[in-house]
Task: structure prediction
Amino acid sequence: MELGLKGKTVLITASSTGIGKAIAEAFAEEGCNVIICSRSKDKLIETSREIKIKYNIEPFWGICDLGNQKDIENFYQVINKQFGKVDILVNNCGGPVPGFFSDLSEEDWNNAFKQVLMSVVRFSYLVLPGMIEQEWGRIINITSIAVKQPVHNLMLSNSLRAGVTGFAKSLSNEVGIKNITVNNVAPGYTLTHRLYELAVNRAKTLGISHEEILAEMSKDVPMNRLAGPEEIAALVLFLASQKASYITGTTIQVDGGSTKAIF
Ligand code: NAD
Result:
């Protein structure tokens, strides 16, 4: 299928590992100008090298802490100088700390608010003028199945992803007229470093091994396995493409059927 993405400039946030990295790879394979960021220079260099070897596209990378407004503004200034505009923004972020309500401090809430919700708001502010001017753009937020069905022990994710979902729907209403779509992709259990950490954390609480936790997670999924990050990336790629030109304001889960609700 011709996705019409070649030559587009794509910014993927929190993209040196996991789902973000898989998304960066998918866009590199399509011949896009790929921009990645995270807090770790070493990981960014490593990811950038890997992508260059595999797809002969060298991602443009920058250090950016998504919880820090100045970092976001400075990084965008550099991007703007280099590329002039961003055609496709994929808002990914590091997962907020796990925990029940009683485990979380005011600081945990503030950090999660900045990282999960405000990074989406801030990057959207920065890229939208260019998208509006060219009357084309895509904003895709990586959220979680938590928006359909709260996940055990993930109070911060359950609360703040809902904010991103409301933001995306509202924004899609405002910018649809300019041929800009705004959508959310909600992954279920996906085998990445983040999931491994969550499994270790849950294993400690329950006094069993993290292997058992991962096996339990798979049992909850009708397809009886966890997702690969490239399976999340495949939907992001489609939503960014010309083929998805009439899909906006929606949330699509990639979860092997694990969400119990009908809608
Ligand atoms: P991951 O831990 O493998 O990767 C997270 C990425 O974010 C890394 O590149 C890391 O360097 C970067 N990062 C972390 N904090 C950052 C910060 N403050 N500023 C900039 N970059 C930062 O995680 P993942 O599994 O790929 O998950 C990605 C997102 O998807 C997370 O928000 C996670 O909660 C969500 N999600 C994951 C799953 C899953 O099962 N893996 C399921 C649902 C939702």
Summary: The radius of gyration is 18 Å. The longest strand covers residues 180-187. The helical segments are 18-29, 41-55, 69-83, 106-134, 155-175, 193-206, 210-219, 229-240.
